[in-house]
Amino acid sequence: MSNQNSLSHKPHFRFHMPRWIKPSFLALLALLIAGSWLLVVYMLNGQGMLNEIKVNVQSGRAGQMQTVNSVLARPASLGPHVEMLAMYATAEFFQLANRQSKGITYDPAKSLIFLFNENTHMDELPLDSTPLQLRVNGGDLIAPTTLEMVTYSIHHKMTIATFDKFDANGQPLYDESAGTFELVAPAMDHSGFAYDTTQEVAVSWELPIIYPEGSLEAQPLQFGTMIALAMGLLATVLTPCLIQLLVFYFSTLTGMGAEQLERGELDPATRRRMMNLALGFVIGYTILFTGAGALAGLAGETLQSTWDDWTRPLAIGSGVVIIFLGLWMAVRSRAPLVCKLPLARTKLSKTASGKTEFWRSSLAGMSFAVGCSTCFGGALIATLLLYVGTLGSALEGALILFFFSLGVGIPFLIAAALLTRALPMMRGLQKAAPVIGLVSSMIMIVFGLLLITDNFHIVSAWITPYLGLS
């Protein structure tokens, strides 16, 4: 009997899981999910997607270029052993050739442009520019405005001749809707080493130039192709920036969560507010990236050539906004030292409404997207143009970057949902809320300073060697 009593009164030992285990697990899971877009870059071989799309797009463009060349090119013979090929380089030619970029001085809107190639396998071509002239509608010969030999070897030479389209009063000199252009070059003399200016070789173009139907139309990208571009091309290009975005996003959410934690607000309404903050952040950078895609599709290489002029002002502006938001966060979470500053006694320390917090989070997402674009904008626009093309539409450019933003944003929102589940478990960390807010705000301020000082790329330079993407 005594044995039974002793057994019945034996103490029961229960294992109590430390309070930090569950929230730490959820936070780690949230981090992994938020970075799941890296699966596209590596496991799903984002670079392989790009290579396949690149072959298809370039093949289509090569076919278009070949068709246009057959309309604009004129072959002829300058002598027994010298062949020439003249090209009337219209605006359509330059668009397909992707040569209307910064540093190219020939403008088909202002000049008639002719490319003149000479080839021989036996003689030695003259070292001077080929003296080209233009005859319009059978009239007198017109000397070129500019004549430049751009490439030369003993057996191959290319000369570019331009003729003004307008006179000093801005009136058109030629009617391109009717008539004939005739490019005239001297024949090669019998020695094979000099031009015979007494003999001419002429090639002509009937105006207007008529291209085969559909040869100038950009081939619309298929829905699946746009998604593949978004997840392959842009994720690969922007991977270093996205890793920084991940850190910035978690800092923003954690810091804003610390504000609620410090005030003891851990009810379901607070969790909904946290999800709204995450949604605002994602919407903010989605708007910026989608707008950038639309501009790239609409403006094409014009945007690429002027991007450098706007990079520094945009970076400085977004850096100032991020620093301001970081200070706001520090004050609202009553971070050590910061709460004693005069700033803490201003309206920043007052409780903000849900709408204010939503727009604050959206502004943070927009500011980081602007900063990211100033660092990677050149590569972003160049690669987007490579696949969408200079004839790509604003809609296609916008959709590609919209799908890209969704591919990053959906994991971010799932991660935020997990963090809101972890929030009620962090009641024991309430005393640490000011420190959490301080660390989060410091991370934001550091990002802001990197943008203002034009050092955002330094972090990317540290990250890139470990990504295996180069």
The poorly predicted ranges are: 99-103, 339-351
Helix-strand string: HHHHEEHEEEEEEEHHHHHHH
| Secondary structural class | alpha+beta
Instruction: Please bin the fraction of helical residues.
Output: 40-55%
Counted beta strands: 9
Q: Treating each run of at least 4 consecutive H or I residues as one helix, how many helices?
A: 12
Query: In the residues, how many domains can be counted?
Result: 2
Return Rg in Å. 32 Å
Biggest sheet character = 5 strands, antiparallel
For the terminal residues, how far apart are their CA atoms?
A: 78 Å
Mean pLDDT: 77
Strand content: 5-15%
Shape: elongated
What's the SSE blueprint?
Blueprint: H1 2-8, H2 21-34, H3 38-41, H4 46-72, E1 73-77, E2 82-88, H5 91-97, E3 111-120, E4 133-136, E5 141-142, E6 146-152, E7 156-164, E8 179-188, E9 195-207, H6 223-262, H7 268-299, H8 301-332, H9 354-388, H10 394-422, H11 433-452, H12 456-463
Antiparallel strand pairs: 1-2, 2-3, 3-7, 4-5, 4-8, 6-7, 8-9
Characterization of the model:
With 470 residues, this protein is α+β, with helices and mostly antiparallel strands. The protein folds into two domains: 21-54 and 219-466, no CATH class; 78-207, Sandwich (Immunoglobulin-like). Helix content is 54%, strand content 14%. It contains twelve helices and nine strands. It has a five-stranded antiparallel beta sheet with strand order 1-2-3-7-6. Strands 5-4-8-9 form a four-stranded antiparallel beta sheet, with no helix packed on it. β4 (133-136) and β5 form a beta hairpin. α2 (21-34) runs antiparallel to α10 (394-422), α6 (223-262) packs across α11 and α7 (268-299) packs parallel to α9. The longest helix has 40 residues, at 223-262. Mean pLDDT is 77; it is low at 99-103 and 339-351.
